[in-house]
Amino acid sequence: MKTTIGRTLVLAALGAGLSTQATAAAADGDVHAGRAKMYEHLEPNSLEDATPPKTLLAELKKPNIAPSRIWKVLEHGEKIECLGCIPYVKKLLYSPEGKNREIGAWWLRRRVFGVFGPGEVYSQVVKVLENGSETEERRAYAADAVGEFLNPSGVRYVARAAVLDPSARVRKSAVKALQRLNHEGPGLELGAALSDADAEVRLTALKAAGSINVFSSVDRVVALLGDESADVRKRAAETLGAMRVGDAVVGLVALAGSGEESDDVRAAALWALGQIGDSAGLPAVEAQLRSPSAIVRSAAVIARRRL
User: Fold this and answer.
1) Which residue ranges form the domains of the chain, and what is each CATH number?
2) Mean pLDDT of 113-127
3) What sections of 77-193 are H helices per DSSP?
4) Half-sphere exposure of 54 (CA within 13 A, CB side)
5) What does the alpha-carbon distance between residue 255 and residue 35 come to, in Å, rounded to a whole number?
6) What is the Cα–Cα distance from 285 to 288, expressed in whole angstroms?
7) What does the DSSP 8-state code read for residue 171?
8) Residues near 98 by Cβ (< 8 Å), separated by ≥ 6?
9) Buried-most residue among 26, 61, 288, 307 (CB within 10 A)?
10) Tell me: the pLDDT tens digits for 231-268?
Protein backbone atom coordinates (compact mmCIF):
# COMPACT_ATOMS: atom_id res chain seq x y z
CA MET A 1 0.00 0.00 0.00
CA LYS A 2 2.80 2.40 0.96
CA THR A 3 4.56 1.65 -2.31
CA THR A 4 1.42 2.41 -4.32
CA ILE A 5 0.81 5.65 -2.44
CA GLY A 6 4.45 6.64 -2.88
CA ARG A 7 4.33 5.95 -6.61
CA THR A 8 1.12 7.97 -6.94
CA LEU A 9 2.68 10.92 -5.12
CA VAL A 10 5.81 10.77 -7.30
CA LEU A 11 3.78 10.67 -10.52
CA ALA A 12 1.58 13.50 -9.29
CA ALA A 13 4.66 15.55 -8.48
CA LEU A 14 6.13 14.85 -11.89
CA GLY A 15 2.89 15.85 -13.57
CA ALA A 16 2.66 19.04 -11.55
CA GLY A 17 6.28 19.83 -12.32
CA LEU A 18 5.82 19.29 -16.04
CA SER A 19 2.67 21.36 -16.06
CA THR A 20 4.45 24.19 -14.22
CA GLN A 21 7.37 24.01 -16.64
CA ALA A 22 5.02 24.13 -19.64
CA THR A 23 3.18 27.13 -18.19
CA ALA A 24 6.40 28.96 -17.45
CA ALA A 25 7.79 28.16 -20.88
CA ALA A 26 4.64 29.46 -22.54
CA ALA A 27 4.95 32.69 -20.57
CA ASP A 28 8.51 33.07 -21.84
CA GLY A 29 7.45 32.44 -25.43
CA ASP A 30 9.29 29.11 -25.59
CA VAL A 31 8.36 27.14 -28.73
CA HIS A 32 8.60 24.01 -26.58
CA ALA A 33 5.58 25.08 -24.50
CA GLY A 34 2.88 22.45 -24.23
CA ARG A 35 5.07 19.48 -25.17
CA ALA A 36 4.86 18.02 -21.67
CA LYS A 37 1.06 18.22 -21.78
CA MET A 38 0.88 16.60 -25.21
CA TYR A 39 2.95 13.62 -24.06
CA GLU A 40 1.79 13.48 -20.46
CA HIS A 41 0.89 9.79 -20.86
CA LEU A 42 4.57 8.95 -21.43
CA GLU A 43 7.32 8.64 -18.86
CA PRO A 44 9.32 11.89 -18.66
CA ASN A 45 12.56 10.16 -19.66
CA SER A 46 10.96 8.78 -22.83
CA LEU A 47 10.39 12.20 -24.38
CA GLU A 48 12.56 13.13 -27.35
CA ASP A 49 15.50 15.20 -26.15
CA ALA A 50 17.99 14.50 -28.94
CA THR A 51 17.07 17.74 -30.72
CA PRO A 52 15.61 20.40 -28.41
CA PRO A 53 13.32 22.99 -30.07
CA LYS A 54 15.90 25.77 -29.96
CA THR A 55 18.52 23.52 -31.54
CA LEU A 56 16.08 22.37 -34.20
CA LEU A 57 15.14 25.93 -35.05
CA ALA A 58 18.79 27.01 -35.18
CA GLU A 59 19.63 24.15 -37.55
CA LEU A 60 16.73 24.93 -39.88
CA LYS A 61 17.80 28.57 -40.10
CA LYS A 62 21.26 27.64 -41.38
CA PRO A 63 21.83 28.33 -45.11
CA ASN A 64 22.67 25.43 -47.40
CA ILE A 65 22.10 22.76 -44.77
CA ALA A 66 22.86 19.29 -46.17
CA PRO A 67 19.89 16.92 -46.78
CA SER A 68 21.47 14.31 -44.51
CA ARG A 69 21.62 16.86 -41.69
CA ILE A 70 18.03 17.92 -42.27
CA TRP A 71 16.90 14.29 -42.03
CA LYS A 72 18.84 13.83 -38.80
CA VAL A 73 17.49 16.86 -36.97
CA LEU A 74 13.89 16.37 -38.13
CA GLU A 75 13.84 12.66 -37.33
CA HIS A 76 15.27 13.35 -33.89
CA GLY A 77 12.69 16.08 -33.48
CA GLU A 78 9.70 13.94 -34.42
CA LYS A 79 7.89 14.54 -31.11
CA ILE A 80 9.01 18.10 -30.55
CA GLU A 81 6.45 20.87 -30.45
CA CYS A 82 8.08 23.74 -32.31
CA LEU A 83 5.59 26.09 -33.93
CA GLY A 84 8.41 28.43 -34.83
CA CYS A 85 9.99 25.67 -36.94
CA ILE A 86 6.95 25.23 -39.20
CA PRO A 87 7.69 28.12 -41.61
CA TYR A 88 11.23 26.83 -42.14
CA VAL A 89 10.15 23.23 -42.69
CA LYS A 90 7.45 24.47 -45.09
CA LYS A 91 10.19 25.82 -47.35
CA LEU A 92 11.52 22.28 -47.72
CA LEU A 93 8.33 21.31 -49.56
CA TYR A 94 9.59 23.33 -52.54
CA SER A 95 13.23 22.25 -52.38
CA PRO A 96 14.81 20.91 -55.61
CA GLU A 97 16.13 18.07 -53.44
CA GLY A 98 13.47 15.35 -53.34
CA LYS A 99 14.68 13.99 -50.00
CA ASN A 100 14.17 17.40 -48.42
CA ARG A 101 10.59 17.54 -49.68
CA GLU A 102 9.89 14.05 -48.39
CA ILE A 103 11.21 14.62 -44.85
CA GLY A 104 9.59 18.05 -44.70
CA ALA A 105 6.14 16.66 -45.47
CA TRP A 106 6.74 13.74 -43.08
CA TRP A 107 7.54 16.10 -40.21
CA LEU A 108 4.73 18.53 -40.98
CA ARG A 109 1.99 15.92 -41.20
CA ARG A 110 2.62 15.19 -37.53
CA ARG A 111 1.76 18.78 -36.66
CA VAL A 112 -2.06 18.75 -36.57
CA PHE A 113 -2.27 22.16 -34.94
CA GLY A 114 -0.75 24.93 -37.01
CA VAL A 115 -0.46 22.82 -40.17
CA PHE A 116 -3.92 21.61 -41.12
CA GLY A 117 -5.93 24.57 -39.86
CA PRO A 118 -7.43 27.20 -42.22
CA GLY A 119 -4.73 29.33 -43.75
CA GLU A 120 -1.91 27.11 -42.57
CA VAL A 121 0.59 24.96 -44.49
CA TYR A 122 -1.88 22.45 -45.93
CA SER A 123 -4.22 25.17 -47.23
CA GLN A 124 -1.29 27.14 -48.61
CA VAL A 125 0.03 24.11 -50.49
CA VAL A 126 -3.40 23.45 -52.02
CA LYS A 127 -3.55 27.06 -53.19
CA VAL A 128 -0.17 26.71 -54.89
CA LEU A 129 -1.35 23.55 -56.64
CA GLU A 130 -4.48 25.26 -57.96
CA ASN A 131 -2.85 28.56 -58.88
CA GLY A 132 -2.13 28.61 -62.61
CA SER A 133 0.20 31.57 -62.21
CA GLU A 134 2.61 29.49 -60.13
CA THR A 135 5.47 27.78 -61.96
CA GLU A 136 4.92 24.18 -63.00
CA GLU A 137 7.76 23.21 -60.69
CA ARG A 138 6.06 24.64 -57.62
CA ARG A 139 2.70 23.17 -58.62
CA ALA A 140 4.33 19.75 -59.06
CA TYR A 141 6.01 20.01 -55.67
CA ALA A 142 2.70 21.07 -54.13
CA ALA A 143 1.05 17.96 -55.59
CA ASP A 144 3.83 15.85 -54.08
CA ALA A 145 3.23 17.47 -50.69
CA VAL A 146 -0.52 16.88 -50.78
CA GLY A 147 0.17 13.21 -51.36
CA GLU A 148 2.78 13.02 -48.60
CA PHE A 149 0.49 14.73 -46.10
CA LEU A 150 -1.75 11.62 -46.35
CA ASN A 151 -4.82 13.73 -45.67
CA PRO A 152 -7.87 12.18 -47.40
CA SER A 153 -9.30 15.63 -48.04
CA GLY A 154 -6.45 16.20 -50.49
CA VAL A 155 -7.74 13.56 -52.92
CA ARG A 156 -10.07 15.93 -54.74
CA TYR A 157 -7.32 18.49 -55.32
CA VAL A 158 -4.74 16.15 -56.82
CA ALA A 159 -7.46 14.28 -58.75
CA ARG A 160 -8.45 17.53 -60.44
CA ALA A 161 -4.83 18.41 -61.19
CA ALA A 162 -4.21 14.92 -62.62
CA VAL A 163 -6.57 15.59 -65.52
CA LEU A 164 -6.85 19.37 -65.80
CA ASP A 165 -3.43 20.88 -65.18
CA PRO A 166 -1.84 22.01 -68.47
CA SER A 167 1.58 20.73 -67.41
CA ALA A 168 2.43 17.06 -67.90
CA ARG A 169 4.92 17.36 -65.05
CA VAL A 170 2.20 18.49 -62.66
CA ARG A 171 -0.25 15.84 -63.89
CA LYS A 172 2.38 13.18 -63.30
CA SER A 173 3.00 14.41 -59.75
CA ALA A 174 -0.74 14.54 -59.11
CA VAL A 175 -1.13 10.94 -60.28
CA LYS A 176 1.68 9.91 -57.92
CA ALA A 177 -0.14 11.71 -55.12
CA LEU A 178 -3.31 9.73 -55.87
CA GLN A 179 -1.26 6.56 -55.56
CA ARG A 180 0.20 7.80 -52.25
CA LEU A 181 -3.32 8.54 -51.02
CA ASN A 182 -4.49 5.10 -52.22
CA HIS A 183 -7.38 6.54 -54.22
CA GLU A 184 -8.52 6.55 -57.85
CA GLY A 185 -10.21 9.93 -57.46
CA PRO A 186 -13.86 10.83 -56.83
CA GLY A 187 -14.50 10.97 -60.57
CA LEU A 188 -12.18 8.08 -61.51
CA GLU A 189 -9.51 10.59 -62.52
CA LEU A 190 -6.76 7.98 -62.25
CA GLY A 191 -8.47 5.98 -64.99
CA ALA A 192 -8.78 9.12 -67.11
CA ALA A 193 -5.03 9.73 -66.70
CA LEU A 194 -4.43 6.46 -68.55
CA SER A 195 -5.52 8.28 -71.69
CA ASP A 196 -3.22 11.27 -71.11
CA ALA A 197 -1.42 12.66 -74.14
CA ASP A 198 1.92 12.31 -72.35
CA ALA A 199 3.42 8.80 -72.20
CA GLU A 200 5.11 9.46 -68.85
CA VAL A 201 1.77 10.34 -67.28
CA ARG A 202 0.24 7.16 -68.72
CA LEU A 203 3.10 5.08 -67.32
CA THR A 204 2.73 6.69 -63.91
CA ALA A 205 -1.02 6.09 -63.96
CA LEU A 206 -0.46 2.41 -64.82
CA LYS A 207 1.86 2.03 -61.86
CA ALA A 208 -0.71 3.68 -59.59
CA ALA A 209 -3.54 1.55 -60.98
CA GLY A 210 -1.69 -1.60 -60.00
CA SER A 211 -0.90 -0.29 -56.51
CA ILE A 212 -4.11 1.11 -55.03
CA ASN A 213 -6.69 -1.05 -53.29
CA VAL A 214 -9.65 -0.17 -55.51
CA PHE A 215 -9.35 0.54 -59.24
CA SER A 216 -12.42 0.63 -61.46
CA SER A 217 -11.07 1.47 -64.93
CA VAL A 218 -9.52 -1.87 -65.91
CA ASP A 219 -10.91 -1.52 -69.44
CA ARG A 220 -8.67 1.51 -69.93
CA VAL A 221 -5.64 -0.60 -69.00
CA VAL A 222 -6.64 -3.21 -71.58
CA ALA A 223 -6.90 -0.47 -74.20
CA LEU A 224 -3.27 0.47 -73.56
CA LEU A 225 -2.10 -2.86 -74.97
CA GLY A 226 -2.33 -1.07 -78.31
CA ASP A 227 -0.56 2.11 -77.13
CA GLU A 228 1.95 3.77 -79.45
CA SER A 229 4.61 3.61 -76.74
CA ALA A 230 6.34 0.25 -76.24
CA ASP A 231 7.02 1.16 -72.62
CA VAL A 232 3.31 1.75 -72.04
CA ARG A 233 2.34 -1.51 -73.77
CA LYS A 234 4.82 -3.42 -71.60
CA ARG A 235 3.59 -1.80 -68.38
CA ALA A 236 -0.03 -2.37 -69.37
CA ALA A 237 0.66 -6.09 -69.93
CA GLU A 238 2.44 -6.35 -66.59
CA THR A 239 -0.37 -4.55 -64.81
CA LEU A 240 -3.04 -6.79 -66.32
CA GLY A 241 -1.04 -9.86 -65.40
CA ALA A 242 -0.62 -8.68 -61.82
CA MET A 243 -4.37 -7.98 -61.65
CA ARG A 244 -5.11 -11.35 -63.32
CA VAL A 245 -7.64 -9.77 -65.67
CA GLY A 246 -9.29 -12.59 -67.64
CA ASP A 247 -10.84 -10.18 -70.14
CA ALA A 248 -7.35 -9.19 -71.26
CA VAL A 249 -6.37 -12.61 -72.62
CA VAL A 250 -7.33 -11.86 -76.24
CA GLY A 251 -5.34 -8.65 -76.27
CA LEU A 252 -2.37 -10.29 -74.58
CA VAL A 253 -2.37 -13.14 -77.09
CA ALA A 254 -2.18 -10.59 -79.89
CA LEU A 255 0.61 -8.73 -78.11
CA ALA A 256 2.60 -11.93 -77.60
CA GLY A 257 2.57 -12.70 -81.33
CA SER A 258 5.13 -11.93 -83.98
CA GLY A 259 3.35 -8.71 -84.89
CA GLU A 260 4.83 -7.03 -81.81
CA GLU A 261 8.28 -5.59 -82.58
CA SER A 262 9.53 -5.29 -79.00
CA ASP A 263 10.84 -8.48 -77.40
CA ASP A 264 10.36 -6.92 -73.97
CA VAL A 265 6.69 -6.28 -74.70
CA ARG A 266 6.13 -9.80 -76.02
CA ALA A 267 7.85 -11.25 -72.95
CA ALA A 268 5.64 -9.13 -70.67
CA ALA A 269 2.53 -10.34 -72.51
CA LEU A 270 3.61 -13.97 -72.11
CA TRP A 271 4.31 -13.44 -68.43
CA ALA A 272 0.85 -11.89 -68.01
CA LEU A 273 -0.80 -14.86 -69.77
CA GLY A 274 0.95 -17.17 -67.34
CA GLN A 275 -0.20 -15.08 -64.38
CA ILE A 276 -3.83 -15.07 -65.54
CA GLY A 277 -3.73 -18.83 -66.06
CA ASP A 278 -6.37 -19.08 -68.80
CA SER A 279 -5.72 -22.08 -71.08
CA ALA A 280 -6.93 -19.99 -74.02
CA GLY A 281 -3.49 -18.40 -74.00
CA LEU A 282 -1.62 -21.70 -74.26
CA PRO A 283 -1.28 -21.81 -78.11
CA ALA A 284 0.23 -18.31 -78.14
CA VAL A 285 2.65 -19.27 -75.37
CA GLU A 286 3.74 -22.48 -77.08
CA ALA A 287 4.26 -20.66 -80.37
CA GLN A 288 6.91 -18.50 -78.69
CA LEU A 289 8.91 -21.43 -77.36
CA ARG A 290 10.80 -21.32 -80.67
CA SER A 291 11.28 -17.55 -80.70
CA PRO A 292 14.73 -16.32 -81.81
CA SER A 293 14.72 -14.06 -78.74
CA ALA A 294 16.10 -15.63 -75.57
CA ILE A 295 14.03 -13.36 -73.32
CA VAL A 296 10.83 -14.29 -75.16
CA ARG A 297 11.63 -18.02 -75.06
CA SER A 298 12.35 -17.82 -71.35
CA ALA A 299 9.07 -16.02 -70.68
CA ALA A 300 7.21 -18.62 -72.75
CA VAL A 301 8.73 -21.49 -70.82
CA ILE A 302 7.73 -19.96 -67.48
CA ALA A 303 4.22 -19.11 -68.73
CA ARG A 304 3.63 -22.64 -70.03
CA ARG A 305 4.34 -24.06 -66.58
CA ARG A 306 1.49 -21.95 -65.22
CA LEU A 307 -1.04 -22.90 -67.91
Assistant:
1) 217-307 (1.25.10.10)
2) 87
3) 86-92, 98-108, 121-130, 136-149, 155-164, 168-180, 189-193
4) 3
5) 60
6) 5
7) H
8) none
9) 288
10) 999 999 999 999 999 999 999 999 999 899 999 999 99
